[in-house]
Amino acid sequence: MPSSESAARLEPRLEPQPKRRSEHESAGNRLTFVGTATTILRLGGFTLLTDPNFLHRGQRVHLGYGLFSRRLTEPALQPDELPALDAMVLSHLHGDHFDRIARRQLDRALPIVTTAHAARRLLRWGFRSVAVVHTWQSWALTSGAERLTITAVPGQHGPAGVHRLLPPVMGTVLQLCRPGQPDFQLYITGDTVNRSMLREVGERFPALDAMVMHLGGTRVLGVLVTMDGRQGTDLMQQIRPGVTVPVHYDDYSVFRSPLQDFLNEAQSRGLADGVQVVQRGETVQLTPQLHGAGASRRQAEED
Question: For residue 116, what are the domain limits?
Answer without folding.
Answer: 26-302
